[in-house]
Amino acid sequence: MSYRVQLIISEDVESQQFGTNVINKVINPALSINAPLIPTALSFSVTAVVSEIEDTEKIKIVEIEVLNKNEKQIFSTGEVSVSLPPQVNDINFNINARNVLVEEAGEHYAVVKFNGTEIGRQIFDIKVNKPVEKN
Protein backbone atom coordinates (compact mmCIF):
# COMPACT_ATOMS: atom_id res chain seq x y z
CA MET A 1 0.00 0.00 0.00
CA SER A 2 1.39 3.42 -0.94
CA TYR A 3 0.83 6.56 1.11
CA ARG A 4 1.85 10.17 0.71
CA VAL A 5 3.58 11.12 3.97
CA GLN A 6 5.04 14.36 5.31
CA LEU A 7 6.77 14.46 8.69
CA ILE A 8 7.38 17.85 10.29
CA ILE A 9 9.79 18.42 13.19
CA SER A 10 8.94 21.48 15.29
CA GLU A 11 9.29 23.18 18.63
CA ASP A 12 5.69 22.41 19.58
CA VAL A 13 2.20 21.59 18.25
CA GLU A 14 -1.00 23.09 19.61
CA SER A 15 -4.36 21.48 18.86
CA GLN A 16 -7.60 23.44 19.14
CA GLN A 17 -11.14 22.11 18.83
CA PHE A 18 -13.14 23.98 16.15
CA GLY A 19 -16.63 22.54 16.04
CA THR A 20 -16.25 18.87 15.15
CA ASN A 21 -12.78 19.45 13.68
CA VAL A 22 -9.38 19.88 15.27
CA ILE A 23 -7.04 22.62 14.06
CA ASN A 24 -3.32 22.00 14.53
CA LYS A 25 -0.78 24.80 14.84
CA VAL A 26 2.81 23.76 14.17
CA ILE A 27 5.16 26.09 16.05
CA ASN A 28 8.64 26.85 14.69
CA PRO A 29 9.14 23.96 12.22
CA ALA A 30 12.79 23.11 11.59
CA LEU A 31 15.13 20.55 10.07
CA SER A 32 17.74 21.08 12.78
CA ILE A 33 17.48 21.42 16.53
CA ASN A 34 20.12 23.17 18.60
CA ALA A 35 21.24 21.75 21.92
CA PRO A 36 23.36 23.56 24.50
CA LEU A 37 25.46 20.43 25.03
CA ILE A 38 25.47 16.69 24.36
CA PRO A 39 24.29 14.51 26.03
CA THR A 40 21.14 16.45 26.81
CA ALA A 41 17.39 16.17 27.23
CA LEU A 42 15.52 17.81 24.35
CA SER A 43 11.85 18.58 23.81
CA PHE A 44 10.34 18.76 20.33
CA SER A 45 7.27 17.73 18.36
CA VAL A 46 6.64 15.53 15.35
CA THR A 47 3.62 15.93 13.08
CA ALA A 48 2.82 13.21 10.57
CA VAL A 49 0.46 14.12 7.73
CA VAL A 50 -0.69 11.10 5.74
CA SER A 51 -2.85 11.06 2.62
CA GLU A 52 -3.84 8.63 -0.13
CA ILE A 53 -5.21 6.18 2.39
CA GLU A 54 -7.27 3.70 0.40
CA ASP A 55 -8.79 1.73 3.27
CA THR A 56 -8.67 3.25 6.74
CA GLU A 57 -10.26 0.15 8.29
CA LYS A 58 -7.04 -1.81 7.65
CA ILE A 59 -5.01 0.61 9.81
CA LYS A 60 -5.22 -0.65 13.39
CA ILE A 61 -1.86 0.42 14.88
CA VAL A 62 0.08 3.70 14.53
CA GLU A 63 3.56 4.37 15.93
CA ILE A 64 5.83 7.40 15.70
CA GLU A 65 9.44 6.97 16.72
CA VAL A 66 12.68 8.92 16.66
CA LEU A 67 15.96 7.17 15.83
CA ASN A 68 19.55 8.34 16.09
CA LYS A 69 22.02 8.07 13.19
CA ASN A 70 22.74 4.44 14.17
CA GLU A 71 19.01 3.61 13.99
CA LYS A 72 18.81 3.30 17.80
CA GLN A 73 15.38 4.31 19.05
CA ILE A 74 15.51 7.32 21.38
CA PHE A 75 11.75 7.96 21.54
CA SER A 76 8.57 6.06 20.66
CA THR A 77 4.86 6.49 21.17
CA GLY A 78 4.64 2.73 21.33
CA GLU A 79 2.08 0.95 19.22
CA VAL A 80 -1.15 2.94 19.56
CA SER A 81 -4.47 1.31 18.63
CA VAL A 82 -6.55 3.53 16.36
CA SER A 83 -9.99 3.52 14.79
CA LEU A 84 -9.89 5.87 11.81
CA PRO A 85 -12.94 7.36 10.08
CA PRO A 86 -13.93 5.43 6.93
CA GLN A 87 -13.49 8.26 4.43
CA VAL A 88 -10.78 10.87 4.92
CA ASN A 89 -8.42 12.77 2.64
CA ASP A 90 -5.68 13.50 5.18
CA ILE A 91 -4.92 12.31 8.68
CA ASN A 92 -2.65 14.15 11.12
CA PHE A 93 -0.84 12.54 14.02
CA ASN A 94 0.99 14.78 16.49
CA ILE A 95 3.34 13.94 19.33
CA ASN A 96 5.08 16.15 21.82
CA ALA A 97 8.30 14.42 22.86
CA ARG A 98 9.47 15.95 26.13
CA ASN A 99 12.89 15.55 27.76
CA VAL A 100 14.13 12.95 25.28
CA LEU A 101 17.66 11.79 26.12
CA VAL A 102 19.94 12.64 23.19
CA GLU A 103 23.39 11.09 23.55
CA GLU A 104 24.96 12.27 20.32
CA ALA A 105 24.70 15.10 17.81
CA GLY A 106 24.16 14.55 14.11
CA GLU A 107 21.50 13.03 11.90
CA HIS A 108 18.32 11.68 13.45
CA TYR A 109 15.14 10.31 11.89
CA ALA A 110 11.44 10.69 12.63
CA VAL A 111 9.56 7.59 11.49
CA VAL A 112 5.84 6.83 11.22
CA LYS A 113 4.53 3.25 11.02
CA PHE A 114 1.14 1.75 10.24
CA ASN A 115 0.57 -1.78 11.56
CA GLY A 116 4.31 -2.14 12.26
CA THR A 117 5.41 -1.16 8.73
CA GLU A 118 7.35 2.05 8.11
CA ILE A 119 5.43 4.36 5.77
CA GLY A 120 7.45 7.56 6.12
CA ARG A 121 10.76 8.94 7.36
CA GLN A 122 12.19 12.44 7.81
CA ILE A 123 15.84 13.22 8.49
CA PHE A 124 16.72 16.08 10.85
CA ASP A 125 19.87 17.21 12.63
CA ILE A 126 20.64 17.81 16.26
CA LYS A 127 23.49 20.29 16.57
CA VAL A 128 25.51 21.57 19.52
CA ASN A 129 25.43 25.33 19.97
CA LYS A 130 28.78 26.94 19.32
CA PRO A 131 30.06 28.86 22.33
CA VAL A 132 29.95 32.63 22.06
CA GLU A 133 33.43 34.09 21.82
CA LYS A 134 34.23 36.74 24.41
CA ASN A 135 36.49 39.66 23.55
UniProtKB/TrEMBL annotation:
InterPro entries: DUF6941. Pfam families: DUF6941. This is BppU N-terminal domain-containing protein. It comes from Enterococcus faecium R496.
